[in-house]
Amino acid sequence: MRPLRLTLEGFTTYKKKQTIDFSNLEFFLIQGKTGAGKTSLLDAMCYALFGRVPRYSQQLPHEEVLSKGSDKVYVEFKFSVKGKEYEVVRYYSRITGRGEVRFYEQGKPLNLKAKQVEERISQILGMGYDVFTKVLVLPQGQFDRFLKPQKQTERRDILNRLIGYEEVLKKLSDRVSQEYHKLEQEIEYMERELEELKSYTVDLYEEKKGRLEETVEAIRQMDIQLRDIQEKLSHLEEIKRKLDELNDLRSKFSLLESRKDEVESLKERIERVEKAKEYESPIKQFKWLSSKLEDLNRQEKELSIKVEKLRSLLEEEVKAFQRYEEEYVKLKEYRKVYDELLQKKEKWERHTKIRNELSTLQLEIHQLKQEILKLEEQISQHASQLDAKKQKIEDLNQSIQEEAELLTEYRLLTSTKTKLENLRKQKEELVRQIDKLQQELSGKEKSLIERILESLRESYRSTGRCLVCGRVEDGHTNLEDTHVVQVDTKLVMKVDEDRNKLEKLKASLERLQEEEKGLLKDLPIDVDKLEEHYQKIVQRLSKIKEDKQTLKTLTEEYEILSHLKAQLEKTLEAKRTALHEKLSRMQALQEEIKQLEDTLGNLTKTSLNQIEEEINNLKELIDTISNNYHEHLEKKNRLESDLKATISRLEEILKSKTSLEEQKLELSPIIYRARTEFGSLEAVEDFLKEKEKLEVWKKQVEDYITEYRTLEEKIKELSELTYSFDHELYNSIKEEYERLSQKHKELVEEKGRLEEQLNNISEKIKRRSELEGKYEKIRRRYELYRLLREDMKSNKFQDFVSKHMLRSVIDRANYYLEKFSPYEFRINNKEELVIYDKTVGAERSVYSLSGGETFLASISLAFGLADVVSDNSPLESMFIDEGFGSLDSETRDNLDDFFELIKQNSNRVVGIISHLEDLAEKFSQRIVVKKHGDYSTVEVYY
């Protein structure tokens, strides 16, 4: 990560807006008095990137970083990673209590939430917040103490604190202690359970198994006895069952004997009902004939009275009709006078109607003439508008003709832009793959440590010896066997393969860059003006598109006006035709009214009223005579018709009556016999009411006879079978069977109890075996965690981890130290850090280093630690905080040379943070922080 620009406002001591441009800074000094706000610049970078600040524990410390008296915090940080630029902006308002974050890649905003922004930044940097805050600022003073510790454990504590292992080791120690106590409890529980299972042995199992076999044999012998007795008992029970059945049958037979008289009576009743059924139809016919004759006699009497009444009414009506018929003959003369008067009235009404129609026609003709004039004026206006729109259409057609040429140029530029955009996306994809591959490389290097730890565990399980302290399970320590686990060579080979793949990806990226240059070279215009020229073409095409739309609109309006003009002309022609028709109609009406006036002569309104009165009187007289005539004619005809129909009906009744009497006479002998046999017709009908029960009664008689005969045969058969049954023998055998059954049940229950005990003993023995095996495994784990716990308490494990990490830090620090001096770090056989002087080929103590040598060695260790902690992520910048005040005067005088060495060999942006004023002259590039009361300002010197 390389900082490019930092803008902050309302952040800690920077109340007013301050902007720092880092783009031209390489090796510079951040200078200011204590408390001026030097470290706050680095806090602002952390706040912008992760929304957190190392010195504050809260996740979002907005209120803590807010300047006193300010209402908002604003931090904008622009940085680059591998040449690709990014920008993050964080804003918080105290008034609203809300904040927001925005993130940009290559100037383009990404729509990400706050959590996603932090994840994306961690992915880009190749490290998270915890690692970033450790490698961004290196505490120089602590590396001096790390190089030359005052006591044996100080170097270990400093290294673990700088790497961040203190908390990890504490958690690991807690976890080991928890697991130790957990295993201790499991062992205690298992020992208690094993003590409880101690009595469950194989001998006990065999003893119970023998008792079970004896019980099974006893059950088998008893089953044989029970089967023999059961066969005898079953035979006797079958005979006893038949004897019981015989007694039941005899009881049923006695009941049948008691019902014998009842059945005989029922048989006699069945015969009477069967006989009554023979007379059922004749009796019904006889009764129907009697009823019908009574009805006909009643109708004959009523019709005879009605005939006499109708004859009397008809004579009276004939006399009245003759009078009205004479008046009806005179109606012809009345009708002739009525028709003449009615014709005069109709002609007068026609004359009045024509006059009214002529008045209406005159108004309509005047209105049509006005409408025709208005339509002629509208048609003239539409013709003028059509001419104007036609001219505009011709002008637009000329403007649109250049569209084809512009479209060709537009497609060419669009294709070029698309290719350039695709190349850009491919380049971004390659950069993403390169980033991903670099992260994988980092992950594989991380796995080396995991392999080492796994080897420790495997070695301990296989040999029982701890590779950290050399201790074996018997408690003795053999330091000669203590060694460092070797690195997995296969994993190193995979790392080399990934590095080769990384070089290939970078070569592909360079090829895409060359292809992009070729496209830019073929452009007809300068690439800087490409977008401007492209936009001009787009604007011109857009204008042509608008002209096309305008042309389309004008064409549609022209067609609409043409259609409207044609409709108006059509309407005008229709109006003219209607005017001509109305004029012709008016002329015809004028001729007709002249003829009517000649016919009517001197007829006035008064004489017309008299005619109407005469017409009404005549009409009333004619209607009265006609109504009276037709009314009495209809009444006379109706009476004649009723009389004729009544006489006809009376004749039919007399004829039917004679036929029914003959039929009744034929049935008299049969009815006589029925009365003789049953006493009366009512008695016959009483028997007929029970005919529906006849089939049921027959079924009851048949069932009785069948059951009677069946019981007789069954009783005879069972009497022969049960003759020899012995009750005493049956009871004796039954008691013996019940006694043996009870004993058999007890043996079966005993067998179940023994089987249950046997299964329980088997499970307990199995559980004991499993528990003993599991106990040994847990016991071994317990011993391992006991040793680890003791190592943790005595700091042996912490020493092992710090020694392993020290080797990694030294390997990386030697890379820088070799650039600064002819020395390299080594660890001697006493596990002490020493300096190897290549010029003389000998080792010497770090305490023998001069002030300048100590400074360069500390810087190398700081750079080495930063590389290890960041997992070799590309650190393009670093800040070294303080630590120069303790240098001797000679070393401080020679800082120019040391800084120049760092500048030439560190290959990264380095910022030195210090409050010492005499360091300023040693830097050409400086960021000066000044305190002004309650706020600070920043000045940059390049």
From TrEMBL:
Keywords carried by this UniProt record: Coiled coil, Exonuclease, Hydrolase, Nuclease
Pfam annotation, one family: SbcC_Walker_B
UniProt domain Rad50/SbcC-type AAA: residue ranges: 5-199
Coiled coil: 166-447, 492-663, 694-781
GO biological process, any: double-strand break repair
GO molecular function, one term: ATP hydrolysis activity
InterPro entries on file: P-loop_NTPase, Rad50/SbcC_AAA
Highest taxon above the source species: Bacteria
Protein name: Exonuclease SbcC
Native source species: Thermocrinis minervae
